[in-house]
Design a protein that fits this description.
By secondary structure, the chain is of the alpha+beta class. The chain contains 10 helices and 8 strands. The protein has helices spanning about 95-100, 100-110, 125-135, 140-185, 190-200, 205-215, 220-235, 240-245, 255-265, 270-289, and strands at about 5-15, 20, 30-45, 45-50, 55-60, 65-70, 75-85, 115-120. Strands 1, 2, 3, 4, 5, 6, 7 and 8 form an 8-stranded antiparallel β-sheet that branches. Strand 3 and strand 4 form a beta hairpin. Helix 1 (about 95-100) packs across helix 2 (about 100-110), helix 3 (about 125-135) runs antiparallel to helix 4 (about 140-185) and helix 8 (about 240-245) packs across helix 9 (about 255-265). The N and C termini lie far apart (about 70 Å).
Length: about 290
Amino acid sequence: MKENTFPEAVYYYFKEWQEYNMEIHKHKAIEIMYVIKGKCTIEINNTKVELRKQQYIFIYGNVPHRLIVEKKNPCRMLNVEFEWKENMKHFTSIHNLMHHDQSLKEMLTASEDYFILKDSGHIYGHLSSLVLELDLQNSDNRLQIDILFIQLLISVAKSRKEQMQQIGQSNEWIIHQVLTYIHENYDYEIRTCDLANLVHLHPSYLHRIFKKMMKITINEYLTKVRMEKAKMLLTKTDIPVTEIANYVGINTSQYFSNLFKIYTTFTPSQYRKEGQNFIGEDNKLESHG
């Protein structure tokens, strides 16, 4: 995106799609696809996402995608595609607007391929008004078109930011629930699907958001909790080594021993012995003190 550019529409249309399977394609234009009624599927980089009434997708430039509309499920859409053009006839530039609106800057400089939003009540109005003015385009309404583009982009950017904040807050709650469950139930068998059921999510989606927020997988975190508990039990209690596996939710003492050695480089017995040596040295220092 160059310094003195502004969005200019290259395609814009209303369309009632019947059964349809578009070829995968890409273009340098940014595309907004708004579902007026019905539903459709958008395939992007081998990922399929569904759009329903009053949802819209914002697809960044040069991202391979295609539209799929199922038989007997027509979908009416409003599409607008625009590119960044250098044109001194515009009263401002997108860089100037980004300087004054952080959410707009974040949206237009994001590294993602697309995002999907639900219309809160303004986007369709901005899109339809823009398309009407584009249909009537002449020298007298150029300023009106520019203002409508600004209103559209700022509204989409604001909605995107609000959705990201809501997702962030929701994800924090989800992770808190999962962590609490793990710390209270590590002595049981815990599966990712059990945790997913707890927070009403698909296991793969829970896995993704957990790793993104915690920088570690669910299984790695669970192992960490269990091994740290085992270390505490080995150094602070006289519980037999063969029984500690059961205390931390691991089925067999052999598997526990192997896992513990990977985690600490010691066998459980070696770790207990080393821990007792450290405790003995501490006691000597205290008695001399």
